[in-house]
Amino acid sequence: MKPTAFDYVRATSLDHAVAVLAEHDGDAKVLAGGQSLVPLLAMRLAQPTVLVDLAGLDELSYLRADGAHLEIGAMTRARTVETADLVAGRVPLLPAALRHVGHVTIRNRGTIGGSAAHADPAAELPAVLRALDGELVATGPGGRRTIAAADFFRGFLDTALEPGEVLTAVRLPAQPAGVRVAVQEFARRHGDFAIVAVFAAVELDDSARIRSARIAVAGADQVPVRAAAAEELLAGRPPTPDLLVAAADAVAAATRPTDDIHAPADYRRRIAAVLTRRCLEQATAARAERSTAA
Amino acid sequence: MSTEITVRVNGVPRTAHVEPRRTLSDFLRKDCALAGVRVGCEHGVCGACTVVLDGRTARSCCTLAVQADGTDIGTVEGLADGTRLHPLQEAFWKHHGLQCGFCTPGILLTVQELLADNPDPSDEEIREGLSGNICRCTGYQFIVDAVREAAAVLRAETNGHATG
Ligand SMILES: Cc1cc2nc3c(=O)[nH]c(=O)nc-3n(C[C@H](O)[C@H](O)[C@H](O)COP(=O)(O)OP(=O)(O)OC[C@H]3O[C@@H](n4cnc5c(N)ncnc54)[C@H](O)[C@@H]3O)c2cc1C
Ligand code: FES
Ligand code: FES
Questions:
Q1: Model ipTM over 0.90
Q2: Pairing of the two strands B3-9 and B72-74
Q3: Among A34, A148, A206, B148, which is 20 to 30 Å from B54 by CA?
Q4: Are B57 and A42 inside 8 Å of each other by CB?
Q5: Which of A118, A147, A153 is the best mutation target for the ligand 1 pocket, counting ligand atoms within 8 Å of the beta carbon and taking the most?
Q6: Which pTM does this prediction carry?
Q7: Is B2 left (phi over 0), alpha (psi -120 to 50) or beta?
Q8: Cα(B9)–Cα(B34) distance, rounded to whole angstroms?
């Protein structure tokens, strides 16, 4: 199928984009990389009257390390973030996760802001934002506001963004040196949206006990799941096989999958447990790499 | 409403009026008569429509023609040097890396980028690089063989140039 007709506006500034969105009062949509939106238009699942293309807004394409944070402009391409040394050094979980987003060709075009705003529950970036307590920055007619990732992802393809708001950046806390990360995904074909994906960032202390763990799961609820109970279970303990299994069970218990055409709920829950155990084994292995894509 | 765009397609400048809803794949096939741009799934999954936008691969079915305004576009038609096939095309021919050839343009451009990023990929890396392109005919083994050989040819060419 082909998209229905719409008008196209290439925004010349952030203010211009916000003004055009306001003028069209909910019928306009922002266009970033188009990797999710153009297929939705072709399938006529989205039928906006106007598309506001942010492609010309260089002001939204940047990587910035400010103090304890890494800030990524919404229009920065996934491939740029995945390959940037600044990102690998500060937030190693992010490149490890982005390597699983579609294929290189998709990541060449897809943007960080587009992935966050699209809010697919199986997507990698939203889960990383949840795992690391990221923040999202948006600008609308009422000005600029910052939203915690915990409040941003509200449901299937549903976020806290108001119709007239443009997502301008995501912010992630810089991770402690020595953090060990692991990503485990189960997908039908490398690069497809995962049936379930687990993301872990673990810090070990000098006696190889777990100082802290951060775990999030994609594909196991309408939003990315943060596994707080499992994180508490792990904190301060040595990573014994029994502990990792208990944590994996706690992660599975935190998920709320539903049956769909790809997998029944119980199957997803079991995969979440298996992938969590593998993530934790990988992140706590004696000579684990600092950053490892599984 | 139609919008004016100016692009370079395989090095040739072109200005056109397009409807905003026209995909880049339809623009290239129908307005530019470049039938090497294949359209399979039209939602980003099969890779048949892959083109090169400003040096990086892109799905032309997931890109609107208006989004390509101002870019340099490469299609499979630009791969050969006159009548001399690109080493990748040579290797696909030699190793029977295609049967019907529907997927081949997208695969050639995808693999060209893979080898530019990683000139000496392992078989596993080649398979991962190919994972975004669906071939219905060849079972991939001959494609992997062709890519491995083309990689060696391209490395030899680059080294040749580097040393003189
Ligand atoms: C074959 C295929 C496989 C894929 N596999 C994966 C995968 O495994 N994991 C994954 O995470 N993603 C996957 N994707 C999706 C891909 O990552 C998209 O790039 C991403 O979800 C959307 O980013 P975009 O920049 O292309 O946004 P667009 O498609 O342009 O926009 C997506 C949505 O976000 C809105 N939007 C975009 N930017 C903003 C902004 N700044 N402010 C407000 N709203 C905005 C748009 O209005 C639209 O509703 C896949 C896509 C394809 C085609
Ligand atoms: S036609 Fe574009 S990816 Fe299938
Ligand atoms: S050769 Fe026929 S689809 Fe690949």
A1: yes
A2: parallel
A3: B148
A4: no
A5: A118
A6: 0.95
A7: beta
A8: 10
User: Could you give the angle at the alpha carbon of A109 between the alpha carbons of A197 and A293, nearest 5°?
Assistant: 30
Q: Which helix (H) or strand (E) holds A135?
A: strand A135-140
Q: What is the pLDDT of residues A141-189, one digit of tens each?
A: 999 999 999 999 999 999 999 989 999 999 999 999 999 999 999 998 8
- E strand spans, B10-133: 12-18, 50-53, 56-59, 72-74
Decide if pLDDT at B163 tops 80.
no
Reduced 3-state DSSP string for A213-259 = EEEEEECCCCCCEECHHHHHHHCCCCCCHHHHHHHHHHHHHHCCCCC
Residues 6+ apart with CB under 8 A from A168: A14, A60, A73, A74, A113, A137, A138, A139, A144
- Work out the minimum CA distance from B164 to partner chain A, whole angstroms: 31
Report CB contact under 8 Å: B67, A55.
Answer: yes
Show the tokens assigned to B56: 């990086």
Instruction: Tell me which amino acid residue A177 is.
Output: A
Instruction: Work out the number of other CB atoms within 10 angstroms of the CB of residue A152.
Output: 24
- What would the pLDDT profile of B105-160 be if each residue is shown by its tens digit? 999 999 999 999 999 999 999 999 999 999 999 889 999 999 999 999 999 998 87
Q: Report the alpha-carbon distance of residue A98 to residue A116 in Å, rounded.
A: 12
CA dist., res. A294 & res. A116, Å (int): 22
- Cβ contacts (< 8 Å) between B19 and chain A: which residues? 5
Ligand nearest to the CA of A77: 1
Radius of gyration over every alpha carbon of chain B, rounded to an integer in angstroms: 16
